C-alpha cells in the first residue's frame, strides 16, 4: 500500500496520472484525514504500520500537491440546445452517393475529479434520426424511415442508444493541449461494444466543451444491411460498414 501511494504521488507530480490513480490517491488521503480526526497519536498507538507510513509521506508532500487534494467531484450537465451530433454514411468504397444527417442526444453529463473525467453517460433518441443532405422532402423522409426500420436501427424495438465513459486519459501534448483519449461502452440495438476515440475537451470553472470524431463498424451492432463484409457475394448497392459521427457538445455545472 505504501509503495502504491509513493508510485501514485510520483505520477501526479509528473502529470502522468490517470483517473484510476487519482481515485486511489483520494482513497489514501481520505484514510489519512480520518486518522487525523481521531489524532495521530491514536493511529500510532494502534501500531498501524501502513497508516503511520502514509501519514509521514503525507506530511512530506509538497504544498502545491496537497492544495489540490482530495480532488472534489464536479458534475457537468449537457446543454441540449447547444450540443449537436451529426452522422455520415457512404457507399462501399466511398465512391459516391453517401448521406449525412443529425441525431439528438436527450441527456448527458460528465463527472470530473480534478482535471480528469471519471464518468459520463449519454442517451440518444434513435427516432430523431434526420437526413440533411437531400433537398427533396419525400426523399429525406424515405431515407429516415428506412434507417429506423429493421434493415438498420429498428427503432420500434430499440428507441434509445447509450454511451458510457469508462476511462479517459489526457495526452499532455504541449503542441495540442486539451487532448484526451476516451474509452467507453456504446449500446445500439441492445448490443454493447467498447469504443475508443480521441477528443478535444476544454474546461472552465463552470463549463466544458467537447469535440470528437467517432467512426464505428455498424456490423458490430447487427446493422448489416447491404454490408459486403456480411454478404460477400453482393455486387451492387453495397454500403460501407463505417459510420462516422461528429460530436460538438457543451456542458455546464449546476
Task: Walk me through this protein's architecture.
- By secondary structure, the chain is an alpha+beta fold.
- The protein folds into two domains: 2-66, no CATH class; 73-253, Beta Barrel (Lipocalin).
- It has helices spanning 2-13, 19-38, 40-45, 49-60, 63-66, 137-148; strands at 73-78, 84-89, 99-113, 116-131, 160-170, 179-188, 191-203, 207-217, 242-253.
- Strands 1, 2, 3, 4, 5, 6, 7, 8 and 9 form a nine-stranded antiparallel sheet that branches.
Quick tags:
6 helices; nine-stranded antiparallel β-sheet; 39% strand; alpha+beta; Lipocalin; 254 residues; 2 domains
Largest beta-sheet characterization: 9 strands, antiparallel
- Which CATH first-tier class of the largest domain would you pick? Mainly Beta
CATH superfamily of the largest domain: Lipid/polyisoprenoid-binding, YceI-like
Instruction: State the helix count.
Output: 6
Q: Which whole number gives the mean pLDDT?
A: 80
What is the CATH architecture descriptor of the largest domain?
Beta Barrel
Tally of domains: 2
Report the principal-axis shape: elongated
**Unreliable residue runs:** 36-49, 58-69
Distance between the termini: 36 Å
Secondary structure class reads alpha+beta
The share of residues in helices is 25-40%
Please count the beta strands (DSSP E, at least 2 residues each). 9
Order of helices and strands: HHHHHEEEEHEEEEE
Instruction: Tell me the Rg in angstroms.
Output: 24 Å
CATH topology group of the largest domain = Lipocalin
**Percent of sequence in beta strands:** 35-45%
